[in-house]
């Protein structure tokens, strides 16, 4: 009897560890964080419109004056130095206050965008993580199948040499063995590619994902109600919140446009000193002027060439566009949530069906081997049964990873995905002394010579 199994590395990295490393390295996420910081800084700029402005001014000049009168001409030069500080405080500027409110909304939009980027990173890391595990399972199963087919090939050759079977059995086994060799090469290449993708996310080479523990304990779907997931999506999905905030920003833009018809009122305060060492053009003696000014400034627009009216029409149309975008986003999120939920339910059902199919395929393989030994089955029947068993095992492994990833994608679809959701998946991994999942279960190959059919 020959046992074929895949030897997993002793030390591996959990999904949480991989995600933590990717969060500090992934260029896409880092770019989203930089955009978030930039948006916050841009939003803070809107405060300037409601805060006072203060300026310090200073200057120096020289004036040369030539004065000609009937019968005389005089030339005189004098210097002037000035320094002052002036402040302006907006008292009534509706457009500035609307812009300030827009800045607050844009800061919230930036947070929603960053949340979406974080959820995307969680799914991308998990996808790469499970892709590596699935490729490892596939390679392990192909190698186990190669061992089983090699045993069947050796048995067929021995039986042909002793004359109990025809050359057809040996050639069929040889063809199947060559096919498995090609599949092994493809599986090895696929595993290397999947590891490169994971390493690129993490920023280091040699990432080793931890396989599932045995027995496999997939996290249950809770709550098992599609309407609950959909209602949560409508209430808190970051894309919907972003669209709602976008509608608020559009409404404030309408207020800014309408404010073009309204007056503005500012308070002014200034203190200026002017020094004239040689006097001025009207006073010959030295002088210094100190002036303190306090006042208000009113500006009432009367006519701007219909620019304000057309700007209001434009912003109203854009507000309608934002309202339609919000509705489209809500519908899209609801549809994606329902589709993802149904896909997860289907994947969970496939896992149960494939687990039953695995048991049935194992029984069918043993039955074909027994039939081959007693002469009621031929070699190709055993080879086909082996292929069916290993294909079922591969499909089962992929289905299990689809369920784990589907749980995350469902939470991403309804907008509730957070890094803490990875802990439930880590609980299903082979950690804390649990045994890794052996995707390639031991395969028994009889060495007894079958009877000729």
Automatic annotation (TrEMBL):
Q: Does the keyword Transport apply?
A: yes
Which Pfam family, an example, fits this chain? OEP
Record bears the keyword Transmembrane: yes
A GO molecular function for this record? Answer: efflux transmembrane transporter activity
> Per the annotation, which location comes first and is thus the protein's main one?
membrane
Q: Gene Ontology terms, cellular component aspect?
A: cell outer membrane; efflux pump complex
What are the entry keywords? Cell outer membrane, Membrane, Transmembrane, Transmembrane beta strand, Transport
Where in or outside the cell?
Answer: Cell outer membrane
Family that this chain belongs to: Belongs to the outer membrane factor (OMF) (TC 1.B.17) family.
**NCBIfam families attached to this UniProt entry:** type_I_sec_TolC (TIGR01844)
What is this protein's record name?
A: Channel protein TolC
Q: What is the species of this protein?
A: Variovorax boronicumulans
Q: What is the lineage of its organism?
A: Bacteria, Pseudomonadati, Pseudomonadota, Betaproteobacteria, Burkholderiales
